[in-house]
């Protein structure tokens, strides 16, 4: 039989993993995901494959899918530090710094001699401190702007009008403080919106949600017709219920 007519041999799980790793090194993350996915279909209990695919998804900014694979890695091998590390990386990329620190800490307990974990915890802690400081600066700046605007309005009202609305010193101070309070409220709202925005990238993609809803609609059980009490008794007598 001519060798050229032979069908190509199916790659093994290990060969697919190696190909996926090579694609990751070359920055071909979509191809890497395809290789890992093919390997997972052949060996669905291989936690290393889920870990590798989680990393590839993270590089593609697919945080939801990356977190799903990281969680599956932890589920299959809860004593493997790298699974928690993968989860922490996704949480950190999504702005969930508190959750990331917890995952990094669990990984460090399982692998206390890993310098990369220590460095990651230090980096995420610094990022969290910077975020807190940035939020405080935002509130402070907005408060100062509100107070300055209040003073400016008071000065203009006093100098540019013949009958100032804010003629009494108490009303001038109260107006300036009120605008400062408004600035504080605006700054606080901005920081809260930023906090609430953290983790939004972990929401499932719309196409996945749409497909799930479509599946639910197609698998809904058929509704049985409703009968009145008289009809039900008649059907019971006939042995049809």
UniProtKB/TrEMBL annotation:
Entry superkingdom: Eukaryota
Biased composition (Basic residues): 232-241
Keywords: Cytoplasm, Membrane, Repeat, TPR repeat, Transmembrane, Transmembrane helix
SUPFAM superfamilies: TPR-like
InterPro entries on file: TPR-like_helical_dom_sf, TPR_2, TPR_rpt
Region (Disordered): 201-241
Protein location: Cytoplasm
Gene Ontology, cellular component aspect: cytoplasm
Cross-referenced SMART domains: TPR (SM00028)
Keyword Cytoplasm among record annotations: yes
Membrane-spanning ranges: 137-156, 168-186
Example of a GO MF term: Hsp90 protein binding
Gene3D superfamilies: Tetratricopeptide repeat domain (1.25.40.10)
TPR repeats by residue range: 81-114
Protein name: Hsp70-Hsp90 organizing protein 3-like
């Amino acid at each position: 039989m001519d060798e050229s007519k032979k069908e190509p041999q199916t790659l093994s799980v290990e060969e697919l993993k190696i190909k996926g790793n090579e694609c990751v090194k070359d920055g071909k993350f979509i191809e890497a995901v395809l290789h890992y996915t093919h390997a997972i279909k052949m060996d669905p209990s291989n936690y290393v494959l889920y870990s590798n695919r989680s990393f590839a998804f993270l590089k593609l900014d697919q945080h939801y899918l990356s977190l799903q694979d990281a969680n599956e890695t932890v589920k299959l091998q809860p004593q493997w530090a790298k699974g928690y590390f993968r989860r922490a990386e996704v949480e950190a990329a999504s702005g969930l710094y508190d959750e990331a620190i917890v995952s990094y800490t669990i990984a460090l307990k399982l692998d206390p001699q890993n310098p990369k974990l220590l460095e990651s915890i230090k980096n995420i802690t610094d990022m969290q401190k910077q975020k807190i400081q940035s939020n405080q600066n935002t509130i402070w700046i907005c408060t100062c702007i509100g107070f300055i605007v209040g003073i400016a309005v008071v000065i203009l009202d006093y100098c540019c009008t013949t009958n100032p609305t804010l003629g009494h010193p108490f009303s001038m101070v109260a107006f300036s403080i009120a605008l400062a309070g408004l600035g504080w409220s605006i700054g606080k709202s901005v920081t809260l919106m930023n906090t609430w925005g953290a983790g939004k990238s972990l929401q499932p993609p719309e196409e996945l949600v749409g497909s799930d809803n479509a599946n639910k609609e197609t698998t809904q059980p058929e509704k049985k017709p409703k009968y009145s009490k008289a009809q039900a008794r008649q059907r019971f007598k006939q042995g049809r219920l």
